[in-house]
Design goal:
151 residues; 5 helices; mainly alpha
């Protein structure tokens, strides 16, 4: 368990450094002093570095070996399903657009996690993308990738 924690800590620090450097390249502050496009990635990257360091240091604690394993067989299945779904969304977004891809992911994840009621699955597939579009596309004015539906 300690070795796994140290590996995760190292990967977390590497990801954090990558996000921080990427955020800095994107410009942390705009010319008018407002946060720029790199502000959030840089801050979250720094937070990941800190979390990775804390995980690494905690791996030397005597308490680490006494904790139960966080991922049993069911937890591992859920982790794989969410990871594969996330990759599927990344691959489908340029084709179908962000809104439709996220809607399909919401319904697909619910089905794979055991939801069998068709009305609930249909609601997830329709309501999730509608909410995201209204929130980001209309409310915040953030342009979302539209895929083949772009004008």
């Amino acid at each position: 368990m300690r070795t796994a924690n140290r590996i995760v800590a190292l990967l977390t620090v590497i990801l954090g450094i990558y996000a921080t450097v990427g955020g800095i390249d994107l410009q942390i502050f705009a010319a008018n002093g407002n946060p720029g496009p790199g502000f959030l990635p840089a801050c979250l990257g720094g937070l990941l570095v800190l979390i990775g360091i804390l995980i690494f240091l905690e791996s030397f604690s005597a308490k680490t070996d006494k904790r139960p394993q966080p991922l049993d067989k069911a937890g591992s299945y859920d982790l794989v399903v969410v990871t594969v779904s996330s990759v599927a969304v990344m691959l489908l977004t340029p084709i179908l657009g962000m809104v439709i891809s996220i809607g399909l992911m919401a319904g697909g994840l619910a089905a794979l996690m055991g939801e069998r009621r068709v009305k609930v699955l249909a609601a997830l597939v329709v309501v999730t993308p509608a909410f995201l579009y209204l929130l980001f596309g209309v409310g915040l004015g953030v342009p979302l990738p539209m895929g083949i539906f772009a004008a």
